[in-house]
Specification:
It contains seven helices and six strands, in the order ααβαββαβαββαα. It is an alpha+beta fold.
């Protein structure tokens, strides 16, 4: 069994492994395609109870650090529960089925330093949401792929709500990949094959329609 497989999560967190498969972009021997980042919407919170339960989950009931948009750390379950209540109390639109918060998961493949993934998410969240939204995030290392749970309060400081429109997750993927690149981690955010195929089909169709509609006559 290879050394990489034998690396423990604690080794990764303590930076004992100094050379990772995706931290070699600057090397002249770099030949592999950079790994793909993953950003997905994992769910939504609809009320105070949902928010509190989700905070408990991503903080492992207070065992893991929750960090908010100001850099404040929460690692005490009563404080985490109070934060969840504060988020709900300031949301004046308590309508049924209103999405109070959006749950995101951002991850990289095995071999990426977890602390670097967290730093990239911190920078991504600050640039993307901090100006108008509250959020918290927590690093998880209980799977092969280091990942961060990022929860964004949908009601912004300006009274407008966050809406995850079509195509926005891909924009977030590209922004997350850029943050990783700035930290020296090779990363890609290639659109899915289906999207590329669909886009190429659209271009082909438009070109065909253009040719069909061309009524010019050579003289």
């Amino acid at each position: 069994m290879s050394k990489i497989v034998n690396d423990s999560i604690s080794d990764l967190l303590n930076n004992d492994v100094k050379t990772k498969s995706n931290r070699i972009r600057g090397s002249s021997s770099y030949t592999k395609k950079p790994p793909e980042v993953m950003v997905k919407v994992s769910g939504f919170g609809y009320n105070s109870a949902h928010t509190m339960n989700h905070f408990d989950y991503i903080s492992r009931n207070g065992k893991l650090e929750l960090e908010d948009e100001t850099g404040l750390i929460y690692q005490n379950q009563p404080n985490i529960h109070q934060l969840a209540k504060d988020w709900s109390n300031t949301d004046i639109q308590q309508r049924f089925k209103t999405r109070h918060n959006t749950h995101l998961v951002l991850s990289m493949p095995f071999g990426t330093e977890p602390k670097t993934v967290k730093q990239a998410v911190r920078s991504f969240a600050k640039k993307t949401f901090a100006e108008n939204h509250q959020y918290v995030f927590a690093l998880h290392t209980d799977t092969d792929s280091p990942h961060v749970h990022l929860t964004v309060k949908n009601l912004g400081f300006d009274g407008k709500r966050l809406h995850v429109r079509k195509g926005l997750p891909q924009i977030w993927r590209e922004q997350f990949a850029n943050e990783l690149e700035s930290l020296g981690i090779a990363a890609e955010a290639t659109p899915s094959f289906k999207k590329i195929k669909f886009r190429d089909k659209q271009v082909s169709t438009l070109a065909h329609e253009s040719d069909a509609n061309d009524t010019s006559i050579e003289r």
